Amino acid sequence: MSDINQAALLPTGTSDVLPPSAEFEEQTVAELMRCFAGHGYDRVKPPLIEFEDGLLSGDGAAMAMESFRLMDPVSQRMMAVRPDITLQVARIATTRLRHAPRPLRLSYAGEVLRVRGAPLRPDRQFTQVGAELIGSEQPAADAEVIVMAVRALETAGLTGISVDLGLPTLVPAMARELELNDAAVAQLRIFLDRKDAVAIAAMGDDIGREAAELFVALVRAAGPARDALAALESLALPPRAAAERDSLNAVVADAWEEMSELSLTIDPVEARGFEYHTGVTSAFFASGAKGGRGELGRGGRYLAGDRNGDNEPATGLTLFMDAVLRLVSGQRGPLRVLLAPGTSPDDACNLRADGWITLRALDAAAETKDEARRLGCSHVWSNGKIHDLANARED
């Protein structure tokens, strides 16, 4: 391997973001953050590293195996590189901003680093953009975050956005009220994840026929929100499970009140990736997205707590910038124009004010159109006019 290739070698799951992709990513992140700010979400900027006994305590313990750790030579305490920014926002809300009026609306954007990537998302370093609403139990809070995320994605240029809602607390609530043993619940969870209605029905001897029929009905209820809610409403659920269903119904109603054309689907038994959520969850998709890497983001209700165990209700979302950028990268960004020798500073400033990216020709002897093409410019400014190279006649 040559010295140049050796110098360019990076750890697995990391990469350089080169022009013009780096600039395009920053512009897209800025668009999303402006939308969050317009909805009253104030930006916070946590540090890249924290002491591990703070970052990885409480809910953060679930991310301990995903975190890079190192010794701080100053304090002689162990530190962790953040694997997720949501954990930090929850810490900020329950400590430094604990006296701020509730509900507290916060947003963030930044890089995270994990020990390993996921099968469908192999990057270990990636950008998170998100928002958290902390201190409200109202369904309107969940609806606000969901609708805001959709509007932000539309602002970034995405179309055909749909939201898949889940309720990972529903099955555990039913299992407790039906007094199912742990072994039966573990087996049931496997079949529910597979959406295997036949296998669930066959568990009738273990969990009771009526219980098995209820879980089969939950699997079959998945689909467009109106149909799914009607199917769930027809089921004779135990009281606590019925209350969970009602909370989902309320979130859907509030979301449609805010955005009547919002495309919603429901999967009442989906829990993978939402094991620590305490209520309605959401996953965002757009037309053109395929497979797991097509998921644009996810979020849901959880408890924001500190190391003392003081918790408060919260809901939020995280957008996956790799998936977002893949769907909007085909859009045309600002055009690049080469300024011919002799261009006045005022003309250059006016072009930039109009959204052009200007490059000044430094070699007066070079042929202007050839130089523009070599530098990736689509246009040339000369003699007080813009010339489109795509329409320029070759000499």
Describe the structure.
The chain is of the alpha+beta class and 395 residues long. The chain has three domains: 17-163 and 270-333, BirA Bifunctional Protein, domain 2; 169-256, no CATH class; 336-391. Helices cover 38% and strands 21% of the residues. The protein is built from 15 helices and 16 strands. It has helices at residues 3-8, 21-38, 52-55, 85-94, 139-155, 170-177, 182-194, 197-201, 204-207, 209-220, 225-233, 239-258, 321-328, 345-353, 368-374; strands at 42-43, 49-51, 69-71, 78-81, 104-113, 125-134, 162-166, 223-224, 263-267, 281-285, 297-305, 311-320, 336-339, 357-360, 379-382, 385-388. The longest helix has 20 residues, at 239-258. It is elongated. The two termini are 43 Å apart. The mean pLDDT is 90.
Taking all residues together, what is the mean pLDDT?
90
Q: How helical, in percent, are the residues?
A: 25-40%
CATH fold category name of the largest domain: BirA Bifunctional Protein, domain 2
Report the end-to-end length measured between terminal Cα atoms: 43 Å
Main sheet characteristics: 9 strands, mixed
Count of folded domains:
3
Low-pLDDT runs: none
Radius of gyration: 26 Å
CATH top level label of the largest domain: Alpha Beta
